[in-house]
UniProtKB/TrEMBL annotation:
Listed SMART domains: HTH_ARAC
Name of the featured protein: AraC family transcriptional regulator
Domain HTH araC/xylS-type, residue spans: 197-295
Pfam families: Cupin_6 (PF12852), HTH_18 (PF12833)
Keywords: DNA-binding, Transcription, Transcription regulation
Length: 298
């Protein structure tokens, strides 16, 4: 039996999630790592040793082996060997063995090529700290990280691709964890809501269909008014506005990654008139379809 993609999978595919590990090294002596400010979602994990997390306006947080730190909104931060950020340290430089005690550090990022107007990350906290060294805690995430570290240490052919794919799995597990912790508003919460997710799944899979508030409410097995209120409460915008945003994000991806005609893309996104599509696209995306095409990779 063939299965349709769930709405979260559809969303991540359309937003074009990318992930990469770019540092796996022993940092020795007095060191510090700052990867913020790149408009990505950086993460760090301590494989061994210890360190300190510094965030603006907060007391330093001690990190120990197995701790994973993620910054959904690219918060300004510093991970260092010292609790005192004023201490003299080497920035983004692992140093040499003779420099002192080593801390094994794994650093990477998550990114979206087509995040656009999506509110997927809006309700996530500024920093997420998971203590993966604690037995029985977050076993699925710990297993993924262990596999990543093993691949990096063995450095066999294909390890780069394997590690980056494991990063994708890690990101999904982190999103699931936030829902399990009680996140009850935002697009992420809506994706895990049984009724609202049915409407989101339909929008994601079939943007070309002529959806109305009534037809979406029927899919959610809810009354028109109740559906509209609940959708807005969770997602933050109306169902029809979300539909338009999704169509435009899908159109942007198709314009940048395919050679399909503008009219063909317009129809694939629910527009029978190219003029109406161009007007809607420019209004929401701040550029014309032609400008998006020129910025693409083809």
């Amino acid at each position: 039996m063939l299965m349709n993609q769930d709405p979260l999978s559809e969303l991540l595919s359309n937003l074009q999630l990318r992930a990469e590990v770019y540092v796996h090294a022993d940092f020795c002596g007095h060191w510090a790592v700052d990867t913020s400010g790149q408009r990505r979602i950086p993460f760090h994990m301590l494989g061994s040793g210890q360190g300190w997390l510094h965030l603006e306006g907060q007391e330093p947080l001690r990190l120990k082996a197995g701790d994973l730190v993620l910054f959904p909104h690219d918060a300004k931060h510093l991970v260092s060997s010292q609790s005192d950020v004023k201490a003299k340290v080497r920035l983004n430089d692992p140093g040499q063995q003779e420099d002192g005690v080593a801390t094994n550090l794994l650093c990477g990022f998550f990114d979206f090529d087509n995040l656009g107007t999506s509110t997927l990350l809006d309700e996530l906290p500024g920093v997420i700290v998971l203590e993966l060294g604690e037995q029985g805690q977050h076993s699925a995430i710990r297993t993924l990280v262990e596999l990543m570290v093993s691949e990096l240490e063995l450095a066999q052919p294909g390890s780069y691709v394997v590690v980056n794919q494991l990063c994708h799995l890690l990101f999904v597990q982190l999103l699931r964890l936030q829902i399990a912790k009680g996140l009850d508003t935002g697009l992420l919460a809506a994706l895990f809501d049984r009724r609202i997710s049915a409407a989101l799944s339909a929008i994601h899979q079939y943007p070309e269909r002529q959806w109305t508030l009534d037809s979406l409410a029927k899919l959610a097995a809810m009354g028109r008014t109740r559906f509209s209120q609940q959708f807005h409460l969770l997602v933050g915008i109306s169902p029809i506005k979300y539909l338009t945003q999704w169509r435009m994000q899908s159109a942007k991806r198709l314009l940048e990654t395919t050679q399909r005609s503008t009219m063909d893309i317009a129809q694939a996104c629910g527009y029978q008139s190219e003029v109406a599509f161009r007007k809607a696209y420019r209004s929401l995306m701040g550029k014309t379809p032609g400008q998006s095409r020129k910025q693409g990779n083809i």
